[in-house]
Design a protein that fits this description.
With about 140 residues, the protein is of the alpha+beta class. About 15% of the residues lie in helices and about 35% in strands. This is MOSC domain containing protein.
Length: about 140
């Protein structure tokens, strides 16, 4: 399993710009990200490629980052229970909670988009151990 895409921004809005790497800080989040330091259990939004595959099957042609995620993985994070720990690159993450679709997605992609997306918005994680994460880094259960 690996990291397919990384996204972060100091500004509001979607899609979030793609980056090749970023630094995670324990108990804080992504260095330079506008959401960093606000709520520890919501530090990083993990999304699986399967979410984009699902949306494509419904006629949506969206680039990675379009849903506000920080990481796109080649695994489905929705299959992970809260408390699951993942080693991603140099960092250690703990899956914390399900991310509900926000009003921005509804405004941008249509009033029925949240229903079409279903429970595939992603999982929020906290940073237990910081480090650098790069596109292509491995993802393992701890």
């Amino acid at each position: 399993m690996k990291v397919l895409s990384l996204h972060t921004s100091s500004d509001r809005g979607f899609p979030r710009p793609r980056v090749e790497s970023f630094k995670l800080i324990a108990g804080y989040g992504i260095e330079g990200d506008r959401k960093a330091g606000k709520r520890e259990q919501r530090a990083v939004l993990l999304l699986g490629k399967a979410t984009y595959d699902h949306l494509e099957s419904l006629g949506f042609d969206l680039p990675y980052g379009a849903l506000g995620e920080n990481m796109v993985l080649d695994l489905d994070p929705h299959t992970l229970e809260p408390g699951t720990k993942l080693r991603v690159g140099e960092a250690l993450l703990e899956v914390a909670l399900y991310c509900t679709p926000c009003k921005t997605l509804k405004d941008r992609y249509g009033p029925d988009f949240p229903q079409k997306l279903g429970r595939r918005r992603g999982m929020l994680a906290r940073v237990l151990e910081g480090g650098i994460i790069r596109v292509g880094d491995g993802v393992t259960w701890v």
